[in-house]
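Here is a tokenized protein:
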Amino acid sequence: MTADNNFAQAELGIRKPVNAVFEAFIDPEITAKFWFTHGTGRLVSGAKVEWKWDMYHLVVPVTVKEIIEHQKIHIEWGEGMHRSEVVWEFKAVNDQLTFVTIRNFNFLGNDDEQVSQVRDSTKGFTFVLSGLKAWLEHGIRLRLVEDGFPQEMMGE
């Protein structure tokens, strides 16, 4: 594995204005509808928050590295060998369609561990974007993240 391929990426168009799609990741009250179960605060540059997945008894520390309103969110999340970075990019295609790209990178560990993290992250962020699309476009909670990972993966 090289630095050139040590990343996971998921992309999807969401049929909502860019401000609504961006806010869905900034405001933990909205994000909890399609991804984690609880966040301790809004994302703002320099903030340190925690994201919780109650169904997996998982708490992840998050440090916000950069926010460019309606364009980009850059975080570092996790701890120790499970630390990596995530960047969301938002592109307004028109006033009712936003294209979102999520890239998770700087995975740690040996080659096999990094490949596993890239694979799991690609799956996870595909679920996140699909859940976001269902929630924002149709008000449906798909519960993809809740149902998408076997319990043994989450330390149960």
Q: What stands out?
A: Residues 152-156 have pLDDT under 50 and may be disordered. Residues 111-138 form the longest helix (28 residues). The chain has four helices and seven strands. The chain has one domain: 9-148.
